[in-house]
Amino acid sequence: MGDLERFARWFAFYKLTVPGLALVGGSAFVCAVAMFTLDIPAYHLMTALFALYGVAFVAGPLLCPRVIIKGDLPDKTGVDQPISGVFDIENRSRRPVFDLSLGYFNLPKGLRLLEEDCGRVASLARGKHASLGVRLVALRRGLYTLPPLRAYTTFPFGLFRVQAARTSGGRLLVLPSFHPIETVDLPVGSRYQPGGVALTSHIGESPEYIGNREYRPGDNLRRVDYRSWARLGKPAVREYQEEYYCRVALILDTFVARRDTSPAGFPELESGVSLAASVADALARGEYLIDLFAAGPELYVFRAGRHLAHFENILEILACVEACRTNPFDTLAPALADELNNISTVVCVLLDWDDTRERLVRTAREAGCEVRVLIVRNGETTRPYAGLDEQYGRFTQLGIADVRSGGLERL
After folding, report:
1. Side-chain half-sphere of 284: how many Cα atoms within 13 Å?
2. What is the 8-class DSSP label of residue 135?
3. Which of 269, 271, 275, 366 is the least crowded, having the fewest Cβ atoms under 10 Å away?
């Protein structure tokens, strides 16, 4: 983008107000009339308009106030949930400030400023404070970098904005929307987890003492039973029962081959993310370890549950998952294969059913994991999955409207 184009965008979308833009259109019409007529009043009107613009353009910077902005917006929100920020404005000029407002300009795609709720002060005396509010709404999930918040005045004629102060831009994390479900029917089992209680931050089952045995080189010295050693005359150690519990892998399919999209994103992917959040929420309320695998432009691997991390952390990961244009299962399968020996159950949230997805599910089954397949798709899949329940596990297909309506109580 060249300097001239940047200046044109700045002038049209920030410097000029709505009345200023309207007056520009009227001025262009008057100039066109004045070029093709000898009527003197047309020239008088054109001269008056240029004089008005000149006075407003020069007087604004000369009378520009000096103000201080204090305040901030929340750093997290949800889709279609307006967030509000209240900012304190202090006038440190030597004169009163007129027509003072707050606003964001050049917001990222997916964020919208609710201008009807933005604050405005008609007059602010020297040294006085005022509270102005700003409201934003997110149309889709994601991590956004906010532009600076600007305090500006449109004095004297309301045609141009003159910046009085600005804040540094921050970040806004928009979490995915989801509807809680009561339970998820999973074919669960338990496997030995290396690390035992240490893996669950010492919360949950405790290792059970089952007896003593003779000391062997390499045994943990903390388990030496000195009373038995004194009684038997040789070293002895305590033995404990190892830890077994259910570890669930939640796999999110992000492969979207088509290119067209909407401000709200790809409907099937957004519904898949919402369903994954609902499943994770239901599992987080139980005694499960949850491993989240999401393959996008980057592979996300995150472990939560049993006090390792909060469900909020899972939502933060899901908020940043992007659509993948190339088939991600070649990347996902090796990362998953390293963990399959310790995983009890695999829950796949898929957007379709085809050969590559079938190979992923087959890999999980061959590793001894129980599998539950959830397909989010309107209409038929690329390959039929009927009759594969006995081979791979239970299949459930949901439409986009089914996920968004929130009518699901059990899966």
Report:
1. 20
2. E
3. 366
